[in-house]
Amino acid sequence: MQIALIGCGAIGSALLELVQNDAGLQIAAIVVPEGSQDAARAVAQRLAPGAQVVQTVPAAGIDLVVEAAGHAAITQHVLPALQRGLPCIVASVGALSAPGLPEQLEAAARAGRTQVQLIAGAIGGIDALAAARIGGLDSVRYTGRKPPQAWKGTPAEQGRDLDSLAVETLIFEGTAREAAAQFPKNANVAATVSLAGLGLDRTMVRLIADPAVRENLHQVEAAGAFGSFELTMRNQPLTANPKTSALTVFSAVRALRGHVAPLVI
Ligand SMILES: NC(=O)C1=CN([C@@H]2O[C@H](COP(=O)(O)OP(=O)(O)OC[C@H]3O[C@@H](n4cnc5c(N)ncnc54)[C@H](O)[C@@H]3O)[C@@H](O)[C@H]2O)C=CC1
Ligand SMILES: O=C([O-])CC(=O)C(=O)O
After folding, report:
1. Residue 188, annotated ligand binder?
2. Is residue 242 in contact with ligand 1, taking CB distance under 6 Å?
3. What is the ipTM of this complex?
């Protein structure tokens, strides 16, 4: 299968490393903006020598697209790829907090007679949540807790010095839609939990900067006709990007392998 990888940062590079020996998965193209071409070429030379580094998904020779780039890449690359009939795996799930974008993705996939797959990424339990939704959910709460440095470059910096935080600090409380829009690099999980469960406007989210933790913690509490569950993930962050958990990479690789494996779990 010929793959186009969109984005070649922390997730993209780690993904290339993991799939480099997968016989069924050939990375044919790496799609990054003009300013990132040189960096991506250096990574490609090492981990995917057969890949061309380009600015848009090639018009021919691609069977499957995997996005690990950021919210803007969904409109820019994923929508047109779906329309052309290419199945797409998406990590930047928070992009679906933009009103109308889920419907646009569905329409594009329908037009191309294909599918867009939103990966679980850094969170677990999405299968249970999506199944529980069928019986009816009463409440879903998500709490994201990361070390202060993971909140740099976000609205969490407004009115506070993250470097000198001494105690855990609530930096956001609201809906999953607001969280995903305000924290595009830190609240994709909030969007994923909400899309699997009660929706972007009925899923309550708390985001916390906590100097006492080293991992990225994700907690989900859900209750409904099925019963209830409480989930805590303690994810190792990637060295290349402390905002992003390593599990996100593994989740994307699992999705890719799921397209070629004879037995899928
Ligand atoms: N679903 C989940 O659990 C998670 C999802 N994510 C999503 O994955 C994205 C990437 O994460 P990292 O690799 O850690 O970020 P990163 O900042 O290390 O890398 C981003 C890469 O994408 C490229 N890029 C940026 N805009 C682009 C565009 N419009 N088209 C093509 N390439 C573009 C950059 O040049 C860079 O190569 C995040 O922005 C976030 O949206 C991140 C963590 C968890
Ligand atoms: O990787 C993580 O721990 C989660 C993350 O950044 C996000 O939800 O956007």
Report:
1. yes
2. no
3. 0.99
